[in-house]
Structures are given as structure tokens and as C-alpha cells.
């Protein structure tokens, strides 16, 4: 049996302010720093150790990984960064407050933008300062790979080549792999691993800073998965994510 650990970054400053984030490179909030440390502690106490880690090119995920590995005294393992693990690009919504957006356009519309599998949020214009093509970290990308907006289906399409060609062979060869990424990029991977329908993935909300353990067979088909930590707290943290686009702000 193979094990794979997925970890969403700790709370970011924009999670705290309830803003659409996407590819915006915001850092962890004080609570997010704590969550990252706690995730490392949970992994250590549960006996996990890693041979290799993968993360995005966004600092909330990178820092979460560093902190978790530090807590495990495993900062020495190889870390690979890829834009393909980035959060789903939120287009022109990036920076807007989710509750204010719900008040303006309605909760239903915001829910479609947040969770629809195939409907994209409004796109950025290429001349927008937020266009990733202006950011040196995406210099090596072909222009057709640089998003102006993404639905989850687009995120699945750019995540899967990296999974199939780079990460999955490592897991298959017995390497102990940690992936630290984002709410929607991890939803993309979970959809693929668990073969969730477009409808099922609507309901999936991944909490910040909680390790998600996947046990896989030799063909990388999931046998079971579970979060590490207190079940009631995890349920509450998932509900906080689900409520972010509601008119009543998350508590
Ligand atoms: O803003 C974002 O980029 C994501 C993750 O924080 O939010 P949501 O859960 O609304 O897709």
C-alpha cells in the first residue's frame, strides 16, 4: 500500500479577509502560521516522514511546507515547485471580498463562480496588472498556459500532466510524498483520485492546514482517505470554507 499526504496551506491573510485569492501571492496569517506548525506536529506524532515534497510557486503553500517540514525536522528533503500546483486562477474576482461580491451579484452567482466545475469567473484583461504574464516567475510559460481565469476543469487540466508525469511515478516507486497546495488545486487532484463526478466535487471543501492522508493501492487507486486531527474541528473548518461566499460572513 502507498501513502500520499495532501496539505492545504494554512489560513492566508486573504482567507482571513475573505477575499478571492487565486494566483495572488499573499502570505500566511498568524493563525495560518499556527496551522502550518500544527500540521507538522500532527504528521510527526502520527509517525509520518517524507522522501520528497511538491508545492506551488505561491508563498502561502511554500511557507506552510517549510514550517511543517521544520516541525518534523525534515527540511532537508528535496522540494519541487511547480506553477501547475497553483491555486485555481480566479480571474477578475481576485482581490474582491466574497461577501461583498455575494451582496452585489447574489449568493447563487458567487457559488457558481466558486464551485461550478466548468463555468469560469470573469476573465482578467491581458493588460491588467494582475495578469500573471507580468510576473517573472511565469517567464518560462507558453502564453497559452498563462490563465486569465480558470474553472476547476481548467485547473484539473493543468494539474494532471504534472501528477501523471512527475508525482505519480514517485508515489508508485515507493517514495513517501507530501503535496502542499491550495483549496482548489487539491480539489482538482481529489476529483481525479476519487473519480468524483462534477456534481460531487461541488460539495468538497478542503480545510486549511489539515493533513489529508490517502492510502492507495499499487495502481494508485484510493483505498481510503482521512484527515489527521480532531474530527469536530475539521468539520467546522470545512464549514467555514463552504460559508465564505455567503452573505453572512464566516465566523
Ligand atoms: O480565494 C481562493 O483562491 C480560494 C481559496 O482560498 O477560495 P474559494 O474557496 O472561494 O474557491
Tell me about this structure.
With 251 residues, the chain is an alpha/beta fold. It has helices at residues 13-16, 30-45, 59-71, 98-105, 107-115, 152-172, 183-194, 231-242, and strands spanning 2-8, 52-55, 79-81, 177-181, 212-216, 222-227. The chain has a single domain (2-144, 184-220, 228-245), classed as 3-Layer(aba) Sandwich (Rossmann fold). A 6-stranded mixed β-sheet has the order 3-2-4-1-5-6. The model has no long low-confidence stretch (mean pLDDT 96). Bound molecules: 2-phosphoglyceric acid. The site of 2-phosphoglyceric acid has 11 residues, from helix 7. 2-phosphoglyceric acid (2PG) binds at residues 15, 20-22, 87, 90, 114, 183-184, 241, 244. Its EC number is 5.4.2.11. Homodimer. GO terms for molecular function: phosphoglycerate mutase activity. Pathway: Carbohydrate degradation; glycolysis; pyruvate from D-glyceraldehyde 3-phosphate: step 3/5.
The hetero compounds bound to this protein are: 2-phosphoglyceric acid
Given helix and strand content, the structural type is: alpha/beta
| CATH topology-level name | Rossmann fold
Helix-strand topology string:
EHHEHEHHHEHEEH
Topology:
Elements lengths: L1 E7 L4 H4 L13 H16 L6 E4 L3 H13 L7 E3 L16 H8 L1 H9 L36 H21 L4 E5 L1 H12 L17 E5 L5 E6 L3 H12 L9
Parallel strand pairs: 1-4, 2-3, 2-4
Antiparallel strand pairs: 1-5, 5-6
Helix pairs in contact: 2-3, 4-5, 6-7
The protein binds 2-phosphoglyceric acid.
EC number: 5.4.2.11
Pathway: Carbohydrate degradation; glycolysis; pyruvate from D-glyceraldehyde 3-phosphate: step 3/5
Keywords: Gluconeogenesis, Glycolysis, Isomerase
Amino acid at each position: 500500500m502507498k501513502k500520499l499526504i495532501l496539505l492545504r496551506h494554512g489560513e492566508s491573510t486573504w482567507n482571513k479577509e475573505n477575499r478571492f485569492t487565486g494566483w495572488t501571492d499573499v502570505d500566511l496569517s498568524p493563525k495560518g502560521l499556527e496551522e502550518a506548525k500544527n500540521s507538522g506536529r500532527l504528521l510527526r506524532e502520527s509517525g509520518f516522514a517524507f522522501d520528497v515534497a511538491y508545492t506551488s510557486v505561491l508563498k502561502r503553500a511554500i511557507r506552510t511546507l517549510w514550517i511543517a517540514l521544520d516541525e518534523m525536522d525534515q527540511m532537508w528533503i528535496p522540494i519541487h515547485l511547480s506553477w501547475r500546483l497553483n491555486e485555481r486562477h480566479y480571474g477578475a474576482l481576485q482581490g474582491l471580498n466574497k461577501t461583498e461580491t455575494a451582496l452585489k451579484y447574489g449568493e447563487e452567482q458567487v457559488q457558481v463562480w466558486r464551485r461550478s466545475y466548468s463555468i469560469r469567473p470573469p476573465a482578467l484583461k491581458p493588460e491588467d496588472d494582475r495578469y500573471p504574464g507580468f510576473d517573472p516567475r511565469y517567464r518560462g510559460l507558453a502564453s497559452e498556459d498563462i490563465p486569465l481565469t480558470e474553472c476547476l476543469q481548467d485547473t484539473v487540466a493543468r494539474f494532471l500532466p504534472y501528477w501523471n508525469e512527475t508525482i505519480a511515478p514517485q508515489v508508485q516507486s515507493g517514495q513517501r510524498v507530501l503535496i502542499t497546495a491550495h483549496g482548489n488545486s487539491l480539489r482538482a487532484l481529489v476529483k481525479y483520485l476519487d473519480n468524483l463526478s462534477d456534481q460531487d466535487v461541488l460539495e468538497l471543501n478542503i480545510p486549511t492546514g489539515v493533513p489529508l492522508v490517502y492510502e492507495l493501492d499499487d495502481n494508485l487507486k484510493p483505498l481510503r482517505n482521512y484527515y489527521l486531527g480532531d474530527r469536530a474541528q475539521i468539520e467546522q473548518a470545512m464549514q467555514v470554507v463552504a460559508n465564505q461566499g455567503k452573505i453572512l460572513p464566516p465566523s
